[in-house]
Specification:
The chain is about 35% helix and about 15% strand.
Length: about 375
């Protein structure tokens, strides 16, 4: 069976790319089609010789190199680029989609299994937030009009393209609900797995660090709401470590000015990140995510999670056993939860047992069953 894999953007390491990595290991001969590829950031996971990408618009070479992987610059072109991919030589195509990959055209010859992390948030449930943020500043009104004109045809295309897959798999029940709401399509749920690495016991007994701290592990983008954790920890003078990189880093660093107990650690290799998870008082998860692997990685290391009560976190965290929730996406709501939080109420064993329910073995078995059905 000849298999191809499609993934929108290979420009940063996130939860979707971790799922892709497992699919790529399941089908090691499958080429990976993508719209943008940053070899510097993803070459170790997905080597250049395995990656296929369509021709970018002519103005690509005119864009200064630091901005060439900003996908917002190519939004209008992505549907045509996705549709230009030729899969006639394959028996099966697996797309992992957060915006455009589900819209590939297979003409019925290869079967198309689409694993949907979410219908594009900026086209549906976050459209007004995105356009309002864009409207600020000197050129705000022009940017807002441009996005409104861009989003409308993309939304139409997105809904029409949702009918092209032979089978849709949703990454969570929250995503399944939105697929039904926006696309009017049925889907089955297969939760993303966490890497077995997180569940392996360490050879040496863990020594707790002297100073306990709260931990953020995230791509640094605005919708993750990391500023809530920063402001809450500043107010309470709590130590906070932030792991991750992203375009919102400078804005977040400005917020932490004069907050000596808040530190940015950048990207951390898995071994060091495992230590950071294990030594944390709790991991703070302030965004509303489609699923979210971070709470499960923390649980696998025996650490509870403090999360916003919404999205995929409701499907992974057992309240009072593996973590707790704050009810509003406000600094004060998080402060109230942090003030009451007691790590001693949570068991490492309970956390680890919950993580094992989302194993890579389970994920691979469920994917292979769906493929066999197709």
């Amino acid at each position: 069976m000849k298999v191809a894999i499609v993934h929108e953007l290979l420009t940063m390491r996130g939860g979707a790319e971790r799922v892709l990595r497992i699919l790529a290991e399941m089908y090691p001969e499958a080429p990976i089609y993508t719209l943008l590829y940053n070899e510097k950031k993803l070459g170790e996971w997905f080597p250049r010789e395995r990656v296929r990408k369509p021709k970018l618009p002519n103005y690509y070479l005119l864009i200064p190199s630091p901005y060439r992987f900003n996908h917002h610059l190519y939004l209008k072109h992505f549907p045509k680029m996705v549709e230009s991919m030729d899969f006639s030589e394959y028996d099966l195509v697996i797309s992992t989609s957060s915006a455009f990959a589900h819209g590939i055209i297979t003409n019925g010859k290869p079967k198309h299994l689409s694993y949907v992390h979410a219908p594009a948030r900026y086209l549906w449930d976050r459209t007004h937030d995105v356009t309002e943020k864009a409207s600020k500043g000197i050129l705000g009104s022009l940017k807002k009009k441009y996005l409104q004109r861009t989003f409308h045809p993309l939304r139409t295309w997105d809904a029409e393209a949702s009918a092209r897959a032979d089978k849709i798999i949703a990454a969570s029940n929250d995503v399944k609900r939105r697929i039904e709401l926006y696309w009017r399509k049925p889907s089955d749920v297969i939760y993303p797995p966490i890497d077995d690495f997180w569940m392996r016991e360490r050879d040496e007994k863990r020594m707790k660090s002297e100073e306990r701290y709260f931990l953020i592990v995230s791509t640094l983008v605005s919708y993750k709401n990391i500023e809530l954790a920063i402001e809450a920890c500043k107010t309470l003078n709590l130590p906070l470590k932030i792991v991750g990189e992203g375009p919102y880093k400078k804005q977040l660093q400005r917020i932490t000015h004069h907050a000596s107990r808040i530190t940015f650690l950048g990207y951390q290799p898995k071994k060091q990140l495992k230590e950071l998870y294990a030594d944390a008082t709790a991991v703070i998860f302030p965004g509303k995510e489609d699923f979210g692997l971070v709470p499960l990685e923390a649980a696998a290391c025996g650490t509870p999670v403090i999360a916003y009560r919404g999205g995929g976190a409701l499907e992974t965290i057992i309240e009072g056993k593996t973590g707790t929730f704050f009810t509003e996406q406000t600094t004060q709501s998080l402060i109230d939860t942090l003030e009451k939080f007691d790590q001693n109420l949570y068991s490492e064993n309970d956390c680890k047992a919950r993580a094992k329910e989302f194993s890579q073995e389970r994920f691979e078995k469920q994917i292979r069953e769906v493929v066999a059905g197709l």
